[in-house]
Design a protein that fits this description.
single chain, 285 residues, alpha+beta, Jelly Rolls, 30% helix, 24% strand
């Protein structure tokens, strides 16, 4: 994996001392995968489940329940085959440089199917730190199929350095999102059941909004505290995947099982082993 700075792509050795500073300064960075083979496998998996061209999802006459069930089926297959985990492992050098040798990733992933100009499919402006993630956690977002003009991920520049003042629940005006409840299928697929806002979002500076449009084979990594939302003003359905990544030792307010191990260093492996030995000794085994 290589890393992009201001339009210039550098090799891995040149990035060792720059990558952490860059993401801290901008709040996000564009990553380039070594190869796109893992993406191709994910594409094929989605195509095998859908009976139509995935980027033409918006042309299908399908009710909300059937739509969500279809997305869940595709997402579950991707998770079961560990396709995203393998993609990250294939590019592990960058993540080790950023997080250290002990890394956790979200056990589940979010498969986003965002039809053109269909607000039902989007999540409005938010910070993931509103919903259990900590400042130590980062988001990893990448397109599965090529993005058309007007589609991508929108971020609010510099918002990762702005405190979230006066956090409060907001009234959801979209009829579909308004029906989302805790533990529902829509909630499992990433839709929020209790949307929140803060002073920055309620008085959003439109000049700070930036649309990020990575190519297939690229990804955006950004802080969970960074204000962001999906966008699709194009004429094709936007299909992407996102998940959370953190150091194994970093705090989180998420539920047990939310994270799984991506990689462990030798010290972490030793500690895990001695803890297991001590536990067996205490139990008399």
């Amino acid at each position: 994996m290589v890393f992009c700075y201001g339009g210039f792509v550098n090799n891995q050795s040149e990035l060792a001392t720059k990558k952490q500073a860059q993401i801290c300064e901008d709040g996000y960075a564009v990553l380039y995968f070594k190869n796109t083979q893992h993406i191709k496998v994910i594409q094929d998996q989605i195509k095998s489940i859908f009976s139509f061209d995935p980027v033409e999802f918006h042309e299908q006459k399908i009710d909300d329940d059937s739509r969500l069930q279809l997305i869940k089926k595709a997402k579950d297959c991707i998770v079961e085959r560990q396709l995203v985990k393998n993609l990250l492992l294939d590019n592990i050098e960058y993540f080790v440089a950023l997080f250290g040798p002990d890394i956790d990733i979200q056990s589940d992933v979010y498969l986003r199917i965002s039809r053109p100009n269909q607000e039902d499919d989007f999540i409005d402006w938010h910070r993931d730190t509103f919903y259990g993630n900590s400042h130590w956690e980062l988001n990893f977002w990448f397109p599965i199929f090529p993005l058309e003009t007007g589609a991508g991920l929108m971020v609010v520049k510099d918002s990762h350095l702005v405190p979230a003042d006066n956090i409060s629940l907001t009234e959801e005006k979209n009829l579909f999102r308004k029906k989302v409840t805790k533990g529902s299928l829509a909630n499992e697929l990433g839709f929020l059941y209790a949307p929140k806002s803060d002073d920055t979002m309620s008085k959003l500076d439109q000049t700070k909004i930036k649309l990020l449009t990575p190519d297939v084979g690229q990804a955006i990594i950004f802080f969970a505290h960074h204000i962001h939302r999906a966008q699709n003003f194009s004429h094709k359905t936007r299909i992407s995947i996102d998940l959370r990544i953190k150091s194994m030792l970093a705090p989180t307010n998420t539920r047990p099982g939310y994270y799984q191990s991506l990689i462990k260093g030798d010290i972490a492996k030793y500690v895990e082993k001695i803890y297991s030995i001590e536990k067996r000794a205490l139990c008399g085994n």
